[in-house]
């Protein structure tokens, strides 16, 4: 057996060769050319924009025999979270909960996610985003998102309104005509009756009243008005969840043993509305009813261990809710629908 030994002098000599060898590769003319190239590349990249336009975000997944498509109609950063969520709480309590969840305390992001479901015979669209009225602020990208996923607005056969706040009905009309020309419509009777009532004039609801008259009422002849427990198509059923608005609805979606609940605006923030479901929210029109609906809907979702898609959840807006302290913890989806 041959033994190999390396003395200290040999080791240092070899190490020295290694240290000296690397610079030798880029010495002289080659090194100068490389340095010049790096400098010119950096100079060229000085004008590379970082805020260039991007296509709208879309997320598509299978639910049994259905295809579900979430589309980000837009988003925006808003200041002072405590003036929207936890309005009955001390600002410090709202800030502490945000900080505990690794979120900024001075701003929050509000995102908007209409949903299209291809059942194989219908393309059912739930809510329509801001439409053309929101494009100046970067919203109103639903039609772009449908196109990115291979659909035209003419492909939509049913439009369902969860409720009639502006960020849900703004996309119904496009240039004075129906944005989805081949669609019929489904909306809650309680919701429609409230917003079209002339009693809204002169009240804080007057702006919403005008929006419904402009966007929803022209489509009334093509609209089926429903209540709790109505079938949109086979496998999609309405559920009353009043409070955020007078006739706010959520929808249970089932196909081939798979289930998803479209919770619309039942919860509007994945931390502030879910971990503290009883905290008051500025945009909830009946705050006590809204809190009761949050408890009812998310108790069901947590107990049944089913996925939900929330209109204002972090995009792609799909996840699960588990019981956590006195509320719920949002668990975003990963690959559950891909296998």
Number of helices: 8
Number of strands: 18
Q: What's the Cα radius of gyration? A: 27 Å
Report on the biggest sheet: 7 strands, mixed
Low-confidence stretches: 1-27
- Assign an overall shape: globular
The string of secondary-structure elements, in order, is: HHEEEHEEEHEHEEEHHEEEEEHEEE
Please state how the strands of the largest beta sheet are arranged side by side. Answer: 1-2-5-6-7-10-11
Multimerization state: single chain
Strand proportion, as a percent range, falls in 25-35%
The end-to-end span amounts to 56 Å
Structural class: alpha+beta
In which range does the helix fraction lie?
25-40%
Determine the mean pLDDT: 90
Q: Which key terms come to mind for this protein?
A:
alpha+beta; seven-stranded mixed sheet; 8 helices; 27% helix; 339 residues; 18 strands
């Amino acid at each position: 057996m041959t033994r190999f030994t390396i003395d200290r002098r040999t080791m240092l000599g070899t190490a020295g060769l290694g240290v000296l060898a690397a610079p030798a590769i880029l010495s002289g003319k080659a090194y100068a050319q490389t340095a010049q190239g790096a400098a010119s590349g950096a100079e060229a990249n000085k004008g590379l924009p970082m805020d260039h336009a991007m296509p709208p975000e879309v997320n598509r997944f299978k639910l049994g025999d259905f295809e579900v498509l979430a589309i980000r109609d837009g988003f925006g950063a808003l200041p002072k979270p405590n003036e929207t969520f936890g309005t009955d709480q001390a600002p410090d309590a709202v800030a502490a909960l945000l900080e505990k969840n690794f979120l900024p305390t001075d701003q929050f992001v509000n995102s908007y996610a209409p949903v299209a479901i291809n059942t194989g015979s219908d393309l059912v669209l739930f809510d329509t985003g801001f439409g053309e009225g929101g494009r100046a602020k970067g919203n109103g990208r639903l039609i772009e998102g449908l196109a990115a996923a291979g659909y035209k607005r003419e492909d939509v056969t049913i439009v369902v309104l969860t409720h009639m706040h502006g960020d849900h009905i703004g996309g119904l009309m496009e240039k004075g005509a129906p944005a989805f020309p081949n669609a019929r419509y489904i909306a809650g009777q309680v919701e429609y009756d409230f917003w079209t009532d002339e009693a809204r004039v002169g009240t804080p609801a007057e702006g919403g009243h005008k929006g419904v008259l402009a966007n929803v009422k022209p489509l009334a002849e093509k609209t089926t008005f429903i209540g709790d427990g109505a079938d949109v198509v086979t496998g999609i059923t309405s559920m009353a969840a009043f409070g955020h608005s007078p006739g706010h609805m959520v929808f249970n979606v089932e196909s081939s043993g798979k289930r998803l609940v479209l919770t619309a605006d039942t919860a509007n923030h994945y931390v502030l509305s879910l971990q503290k479901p009883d905290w008051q929210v500025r945009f909830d029109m009946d705050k006590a009813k809204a809190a009761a609906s949050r408890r009812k809907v998310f108790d069901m979702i947590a107990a049944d261990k089913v996925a939900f898609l929330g209109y204002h959840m972090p995009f792609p807006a799909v996840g699960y809710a588990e019981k956590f302290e006195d509320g719920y913890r949002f668990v975003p989806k990963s690959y559950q629908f891909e296998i």
